[in-house]
């Protein structure tokens, strides 16, 4: 910046250099903005010890948007949108959660709360409805000799 004292209206001698510096700054800022806009959005990232939870929800009526809302995202209605609808009308999403007990519901089109029909357990939500219960274990379920490998559960040390 230039500080001019007095009534001399003439431009400083290095005004042209200032113009080029300012132009370079604008060019840098605009390229940084376009670069960040072209970068893919970061999705959920697993943390060591977290378990992958795959959600598939078929709403009873056609829907435009579905969010999964629960204790794992502090009941934030916008935090966890599901992708869809797919060709079969389903909405899908992936969560990475540490072991623990969680309660949740699906929020359809921002106004209708629906418990997960595929959940094996529900509990009273305190508002006359039901919450779905999700138990994320510390170890994956497995049986010796079943011939299957759960690749999500493998850990490298």
What this model shows, in words?
Helices cover 15% and strands 27% of the residues. It is α+β, with helices and mostly antiparallel strands. It has a domain at 51-136: Sandwich (Immunoglobulin-like). Strand 6 and strand 7 (130-136) form a beta hairpin. It is extended. Mean pLDDT is 77; it is low at 32-43.
The structure class reads alpha+beta
Report how far the terminal alpha carbons are from each other: 55 Å
The fraction of residues assigned to DSSP E strands is 25-35%
Mean pLDDT, all residues: 77
Overall, the morphology is extended
Oligomer: single chain
Question: What's this, in brief?
Answer:
The protein is α+β, with helices and mostly antiparallel strands and 157 residues long. Helix content is 15%, strand content 27%. It is extended.
Summarize the topology:
Elements: H1 15-38, E1 51-57, E2 66-70, E3 91-97, E4 100-108, E5 112-114, E6 121-124, E7 130-136
Antiparallel strand pairs: 1-3, 2-4, 4-5, 4-7, 6-7
Descriptors for this entry?
two-stranded antiparallel sheet; alpha+beta; 157 residues; five-stranded antiparallel β-sheet; 1 helix; Immunoglobulin-like
């Amino acid at each position: 910046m230039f500080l001019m004292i007095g009534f001399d209206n003439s431009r400083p001698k290095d005004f042209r250099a200032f113009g080029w510096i300012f132009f370079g700054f604008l060019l840098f800022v605009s390229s940084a903005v376009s670069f960040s806009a072209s970068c893919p959005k970061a999705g959920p990232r697993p943390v060591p010890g977290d378990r992958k939870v795959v959600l598939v929800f078929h709403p009873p009526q056609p829907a435009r948007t579905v969010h999964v809302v629960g204790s794992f995202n502090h009941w934030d209605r916008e935090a966890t949108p599901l992708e869809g609808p797919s060709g079969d009308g389903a909405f899908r999403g992936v969560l990475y959660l540490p072991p623990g007990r969680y309660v949740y519901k699906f929020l359809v089109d921002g106004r209708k709360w629906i418990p997960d029909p595929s959940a094996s357990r529900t509990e009273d939500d305190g508002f006359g409805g039901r919450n779905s219960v999700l138990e994320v274990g510390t170890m994956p379920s497995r049986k010796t000799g079943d011939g299957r490998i759960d690749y999500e559960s493998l850990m490298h040390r």
